[in-house]
Every structure is written in C-alpha cells, then in structure tokens.
Design goal:
The protein has no helices and seven strands. By secondary structure, it is mostly beta strands. The strands form two sheets. It has a five-stranded antiparallel sheet, with no helix packed on it. A two-stranded antiparallel sheet has the order 4-5.
C-alpha cells in the first residue's frame, strides 16, 4: 500500500494598504508581493473600471463601469497595474473621476 504525503502549500497574495487621500481623485497606497516587489506611497487615481475584477482591499466584486481607484502611470509600468480598489472601500461616496 502506497501512502502519499500531503503537503500544504502556502500561497502568498499581494498586500495592499491604504495610506492617505491626497486629492479628490487621488489616493496613495503601499503595495507588496513576495515575488514581485514592493511599492510605498504609490499614487492611484479615481476612474471607471474597464473590466470586471475584485477589490484589492475588500475582495468585493467590481463590475465594468464601477468607480474605482487604479495605479497611476503608464499601462503595464508597474507589476500591480491591473489592481483596483472600489471607491466604497475608502468610504468616499463621490470622488472626482478624471
């Protein structure tokens, strides 16, 4: 009789922490991932979700067109360029969308 050992594989997920609101349509976050690195005081801007996703802070579903914060900068410039935070996660009902 063969016995198989079971191994528990620990998965690491990127950690995102809200730092502060810097303007009506901007916020800063600190982000880190064991495999991809770390960014502190990263600027995020308010906008509309272009695709469905999950809020990086709360895990709430995001639908296309929802108001979200996204990392600011050129596309694919940062490892977390696809992350989004739903505006409701920051408790601000109406940030200015640019």
């Amino acid at each position: 009789m063969l016995r198989h050992r079971s191994y528990e594989v620990e998965q690491f997920y990127p950690a995102l922490r809200f730092v502060e609101r810097t303007a009506d349509s901007e916020a800063t976050f600190s982000w880190q991932d064991p495999a991809l690195g770390r960014m502190t005081d990263q600027r995020w801007k308010a906008g509309k979700a272009r695709y469905e996703g999950v809020c990086a802070l709360t895990g709430v579903s995001i639908r296309r067109g929802d108001r979200v914060f996204k990392p600011f900068g050129l596309r694919r410039e940062t490892p977390n360029h696809e992350q989004m935070v739903h505006v409701d996660a920051l408790g601000d009902p109406d940030p200015k969308i640019t």
